[in-house]
Amino acid sequence: MKNPFKYGTIVEDEFFTDRQIELQQIMQAMDSENHLILISPRRFGKSSLITKAVKLLKRPCIIVNLQQVVSAQDLATKLMKEAFKIYKWERIKHHMRHFRIVPTISTNPITDGVDLSFQPRVDTRILLEDVLLLLEHVSTPEHRLIVVLDEFQEIATIEKGLDRQLRAIMQAQQGLNYIFLGSQESMMMEIFEQKKSPFYNFGKLMRLAKIPYADFYDYLMSRMPRKDDNIAKDILTITDCHPYYTQQLASQVWELITYEQLSDNVVDEALDRLTQVHDLDFERLWQGFNRTDKYVMQALCKGENPQGTGSLPTSTVFSSLKRLTKTGYVIRANTYSIEDPFFKRWILQKQV
Ligand SMILES: Nc1ncnc2c1ncn2[C@@H]1O[C@H](COP(=O)(O)OP(=O)(O)OP(=O)(O)O)[C@@H](O)[C@H]1O
Ligand SMILES: [Mg+2]
After folding, report:
1. Which of 42, 48, 236 to mutate to test the pocket of ligand 1 (most atoms within 8 A of CB)?
2. Is the pTM of this model over 0.90?
3. Does 197 share its domain with 63?
């Protein structure tokens, strides 16, 4: 018997649920000359969703995570390396004839892979232009290329002016689609919604929410070894339908029932075990918070509105909420809530 729950990596096939409307919206956007901006907090399922959409569309796709990019030159290099993975060398070589900055290319005879590097300190504007135009040229009308830039909010930290350079090149391009993914909502909004930003209104903006309760409920019920609807309900109450944590908790519950034949308070036991595993990390995280952040986290854990208790000035609480949302400890939907249900349990057990 194999654990039917999966967390931490991209989920596909039988592990993937719901998102029908979002898939439709993404596929429609890709069926045009427009670009897409997809925003959600961490681990809501952006990568899984895009992977599924690309598969359904049967389109070539390259993905670069800007968190792993250290400079404009590095971005150009990584884009080229990804292009080498999906296009034949002969085809790329043909389009590289116009490169003003010629890279050094080596092939690995064992893996058949192609490696590439540029001279240091070249003009990055020209370099990016060469590379992005190459992507445009290898893309064909029948198999239009999709270029995904993950954690795009990092653009601001890589190199000054890089956003302006990219935008200047991209705005003249045709025949390919860009998808910009981001997990820091406020920064993504600054990039795509502020008039003075180079990427203002650059594409269709989509927000990814958690997975709807009814769908996740059915998903859990159909996979649990014991058909007890309290188990599914308890899991979803604790995780509040967060995709990653729901799968993680469900996976632990499944193990307790399957391998340890636990029958009572299974969800509670699973929650406790996962909380204990992270005890040291949580302790360290907690020590790193300042007093206001601790107060705000405690209030949210207890289900109180930290802005309504009157113990601290509203502006101080607001800055703390902003900070905690930016670092991902707090999620803002209609209201603010703690992102990690295990950290929440730990705080309630040890700090309240
Ligand atoms: N459609 C889905 N059905 C079931 N589970 C899902 C779905 N989407 C995401 N998950 C769960 O959430 C986890 C995180 O998904 P994914 O890595 O796609 O999210 P992400 O938003 O790209 O995360 P990150 O911010 O870390 O890049 C998955 O490993 C899986 O457990
Ligand atoms: Mg991702």
Report:
1. 48
2. yes
3. yes
- Verify that 178 and 300 share a domain, yes or no: no
Tell me if 339 sits within 8 A of 329, measured CB to CB: yes
Q: Which of 178, 207, 236 is the last residue of a domain?
A: 207
Ligand 1 pocket, CB under 6 A: 6-11, 15-19, 40, 42-48, 183, 243-244, 247
Q: Give the pLDDT of residue 108.
A: 80
The residue contributing the CA closest to ligand 1 atom 4 is 16
The tens digit of pLDDT for each residue in 1-16 reads 899 999 999 999 999 9
Q: Are 45 and 181 in contact (CB under 8 A)?
A: no
300-327 confidence digits (pLDDT tens): 999 999 988 778 899 999 999 999 999 9
Minimal-distance CA residue to ligand 1 atom 29: 7
**Residue with CA nearest ligand 1 atom 15:** 45
Domain count, the chain: 3
Give first-to-last CA distance, the chain, whole Å. 40
Q: Is the pLDDT of residue 167 over 80?
A: yes
Range of the domain at 346: 283-350
Which distant-in-sequence residues (6+ apart) come within 8 Å of 157 by Cβ?
A: none
